[in-house]
Design brief:
The chain is of the alpha/beta class. The protein has ten helices and ten strands. Helix 8 runs antiparallel to helix 9. The structure holds coenzyme A (COA).
């Protein structure tokens, strides 16, 4: 069977390469399922600290869901497909370990939605973002209508979603859709460098920060109250004691994630 996802593990970081370059890494069923399994592995296996998702080849991160797969779907099947994507992308978004999208080309439709579900997005200069679903008589089905608003605000999200226009990397940075734009050849190293800075912090603090930030967008959750709760929890951790003691002793902290 064709290997649609390539996995590399380096220094506790899982590097996932969407691997259908001849189809611009379009997300077919098998890619989505494999992605679900690897995200699960990240979340449940202690040896993994973070994940980077990128695309194989030099043209695309992912040019969307695989259009060839869903032409014959009845409504019920289409809803199942969307729900599966939602569940997996949500697991990425709520992962306690940082996930970065290294966007190395087209990130369209489901590709853009996948990038938006990651905690951070670093893009190469040739990256192009967009939600062109309306061109196909569709709307985004992997969370795009919601996360686009969360990231760039309603007015610009409406424009991106209604026009289906592609957004150049530099414009995506101005909109706040990506964190940083770098030279193509520096993309992976920039992601590793960003993760290195994050992973030098207290792992429980990173986990709780992600949870607190996500709480802002959760219906029925008071993000401020969640922050108070998580802040308090930090005081019960060894990491907090180590972090503050190390500061006072003018040395580097040795966090254990406890
Ligand atoms: N699903 C399935 N196949 C896709 C795809 C997708 N989302 N995006 C690209 N491909 C395939 C093309 O069909 C083509 O396959 P082929 O060589 O067997 O014909 C191959 O990938 C290369 O794409 P191509 O269109 O020839 O490249 P291009 O450089 O001319 O154009 C894009 C690039 C991204 C502008 C164009 O591929 C495109 O518009 N893709 C669809 C984007 C989209 O609508 N995504 C949302 C899906 S819900």
């Amino acid at each position: 069977m064709e290997n649609h996802i390539e996995i590399e593990k380096r220094d506790g970081i899982i590097i996932v390469r969407l691997n259908r370059p001849s189809k611009l890494n379009a997300l077919n069923r098998s890619v989505i399922s494999d992605l679900g399994e690897i995200v699960h592995q990240l979340n449940f296996e202690d040896e993994y600290k973070a994940m980077i998702i990128t695309g194989s080849g030099d043209k695309a991160f992912a040019a969307g869901a695989d259009i060839s797969e869903f032409t014959d779907y009845p409504t019920s099947e289409a809803m199942k497909m969307a729900q599966k994507g939602h569940d997996i992308f949500r697991e990425i978004e709520t992962s306690k370990k940082p996930v970065i999208a290294a966007v190395n080309g087209f990130a369209l439709g489901g590709g853009c939605e996948l990038a938006m579900a990651c905690h951070l997005r670093i893009a190469s200069q040739n990256a192009r973002f967009g939600q062109p679903e309306a061109t196909l008589g569709l709307i985004p089905g992997y969370g795009g209508t919601q996360r686009m608003i969360q990231l760039i605000g309603k007015a610009k999200a409406m424009e991106v979603l209604l026009t289906g226009d592609m957004i150049a990397a530099e414009d995506a940075e101005i909109l706040g859709l990506v964190n940083k734009v770098v030279e193509k050849e520096d993309l992976m190293e920039e992601c590793f460098a960003m993760l290195k800075r994050i992973l030098s912090k207290g792992p429980l603090a990173i986990e709780k920060t992600i949870e607190a930030v996500n709480a802002y967008f959760e219906e029925g959750v008071d993000g401020f109250a969640k922050e108070v709760e998580l802040f308090g929890e930090c005081f019960g951790t060894e990491d907090f004691k180590e972090g503050t003691t190390a500061f006072l002793e003018k040395r580097k902290p040795q966090f254990k994630g406890l």
